[in-house]
Amino acid sequence: MTMPLSVKERVQRHREVLRASGLRPVQLWVADTRRPGFDQECLRQSLAVAQADLADQDLMDFLDQASGPGFA
Asked: How far apart are CA 29 and CA 26, in angstroms?
């Protein structure tokens, strides 16, 4: 009777299979949504982008054309 694999061994085998299929691990850092002030910073950035978009007449013309007749 064989011993079941430990979690460490199962993870290692899984990673080996992924590497053999041409994948590689990467580490990805993302904003901490639990951090105090995160929602206010999202709002600040969203408003800044919206204001910049409104000031871009070429973008507004493009959006008007894209959402005109025949837009699904």
From this structure: 10
Judge whether 38 and 31 are in contact, CB under 8 Å: yes
Query: Which pLDDT value is given to residue 33?
Result: 97
What whole-number distance in Å separates Cα of residue 64 and Cα of residue 66?
6
Q: Which residue has the tokens 């800044």?
A: 48
Domain ranges of the chain: 32-72
Give the position of tokens 């850092």.
29
Rounded Cα gap, residues 15 and 25, in angstroms: 8
How far apart are the C-alpha atoms of 49 and 28, rounded to whole Å?
A: 24
pTM of the full structure = 0.49
User: pLDDT tens-digit profile of 23-70?
Assistant: 999 999 999 999 999 999 999 999 999 999 889 999 888 988 998 876
